[in-house]
Amino acid sequence: MSEPWLVVGLGNPGPGYAGNRHNVGHMVLDEMLGRCGASLVSHRSRAQVADVRLGVLPGGAPGPRVVIARPTTYMNTSGGPVGALAQYLQVPPERVLVVHDELDIPYLQVRLKSGGGEGGHNGLRSISSALGTRDYLRVRVGVGRPPGRMDAADYVLKDFSAAERKELPWLLDAAADAVEMVVRDGLTAAQQRFHAPA
């Protein structure tokens, strides 16, 4: 059996954070779980996980194996659970895909990359430290820059606005599509689709 992918959605635990921009990684996982008809179960790595197959390949074989994971720690300490899961599943960094909010990308845009800096994102910094490398995949979900002089940390810990929430299902759908395409078709093919001018 082929080795699995580890898809991690970042966010903070608890209902008080559930609608925050910082929790868009969790929201994308919920979209993926809904598509698979799967639910999360607790794992000793301090995460909730679902072991799923992504669709069906031509000829009827089951699609790639993906372990969907939501750390139960706070965002800034996501690395511990991610590192523990990667080790437990024997998943190399190039098959770890992290879904997270991104201030430097306009709202409703999704961008994909492998490696690079963390851009001040403490969740990514924690994961890079735990994995011992920055060379893992990222699905970067655009939440846009804060208005006026609002502090970025305050902005990401606020819920999406009423206007944004009307379009949020589209964004979550696109981000889930991006995850699936990276796993199925590779990063380059997914970038060509999601980075193309609208």
TrEMBL record:
Its EC number is 3.1.1.29. The record marks N12 as: Discriminates between blocked and unblocked aminoacyl-tRNA. One of its GO terms (cellular component) is cytoplasm. TRNA binds at Y17, Y74, N76, N122. The keyword Iron does not apply. One of its GO terms (biological process) is rescue of stalled ribosome. Keywords: Cytoplasm, Hydrolase, RNA-binding, tRNA-binding. It catalyses: an N-acyl-L-alpha-aminoacyl-tRNA + H2O = an N-acyl-L-amino acid + a tRNA + H(+). GO terms for molecular function: peptidyl-tRNA hydrolase activity; tRNA binding. Its main location: cytoplasm. The active site is at H22. The keyword Transport does not apply. Transmembrane segments: none annotated. InterPro entries: Pept_tRNA_hydro (IPR001328), Pept_tRNA_hydro_CS (IPR018171), Pept_tRNA_hydro_sf (IPR036416). It is an enzyme of class 3 (hydrolase). The record marks D101 as: Stabilizes the basic form of H active site to accept a proton. It is found in: Cytoplasm. Catalyzes the release of premature peptidyl moieties from peptidyl-tRNA molecules trapped in stalled 50S ribosomal subunits, and thus maintains levels of free tRNAs and 50S ribosomes. Belongs to the PTH family. NCBIfam families: pth (TIGR00447). PANTHER family: PEPTIDYL-TRNA HYDROLASE. Monomer. This is Peptidyl-tRNA hydrolase.
